[in-house]
Design goal:
This protein is α/β, with parallel strands linked by helices. It has 3 domains: about 80 residues, Arc Repressor Mutant, subunit A, CATH 1.10.10.10; about 140 residues, Periplasmic binding protein-like II (D-Maltodextrin-Binding Protein, domain 2); about 90 residues, Periplasmic binding protein-like II (D-Maltodextrin-Binding Protein, domain 2). It is built from 12 helices and 12 strands. Strand 3, helix 5 and strand 4 form a beta-alpha-beta unit. The radius of gyration is 23 Å and the shape is globular. The relative contact order is 0.13.
Amino acid sequence: MKLHQLKYLVAIVENNFNITTAAEKIYTSQPGISKQLRLLEDELDLKIFERGGKQLTGLTALGEDVVKHARRALQEVENIKRIAQDKNQVETGHFSLATTQTQAQYVLPEVFKRFHARYPQLQIDIQHGSAEQMNDLLERKQIDFAIASDNKSLSSDIIKIPCYNWDRVIIFPQDHPMGDLTRPTLKDIAKYPIVTYKEPDIGESSLVKSMRNEGLKPNIVFTARDADVIKTYVLNGMGIGIIANMAFNPKADSQLIGFSAQGILPRCTTWLAFNKNLLLRRYMYCFIELFAPHITREWLDGYINNEIPNDEKSTADEGKQQSLPMHQMWHI
């Protein structure tokens, strides 16, 4: 068994079982990949792929396990390279992160400004996506980190670090009737059309859950992943908006009124995640400390190695985030 055979195997899976596309992505030939695949299956004496005629259609049950271990083996090879690079203080390369529009636009700019000043030769790539998409990218090791803000359970291969809490804000135009209220309630919110973030792909949002618990049903008329899109449609009269508090600036958004949803809707937790088989390099620790200053390298290593008490780890669970700092305490 050779490493390049494992590389070909993973490439085929990541390109929807299309050998031609996989060959183009890794700059080799289709016949070469097909030959190495046959040699690998012969050596292992098992069938890795399901086939329909000459086409690959999926993985067998054993094939799923083989691919999982192949990804891990390739990651370990990459980790060996990372050890050498850190020892030799190589600070070039590629750092990739997937996150939401709110984090990318309102939280990360200053973090990356300082990060780039420390590692000017490092190429930074940011992708946007849902929690499900980020989980898939992490599993495939196509990104280093993911940053998001929901309570979705990630796969067992992903380490999820709770970083900070934040509240939402209810926004509406200056002349909206909500402006006459001293303190809006869920019942008040339910009276109006709502423009807010897209529902999670699995399960229901905390907004829907909170209203359902009060016997209310929200009238959600428009959803988007982008807070600025939500603000635009609120200004155009589609309804009241509910967005992250870090995405609302009373001066920049002076055409809107914002009420904190603290005490009305549950607090949200932003987490940072990465594949547990990823060897964290020096610049990755630096990024984490810039993003969440209260997380030290020693604490993080203890968390990764299961040396942190369970009561501290439980802050990642929904409703148990009291010990985390609020985002506005060190708003950037």
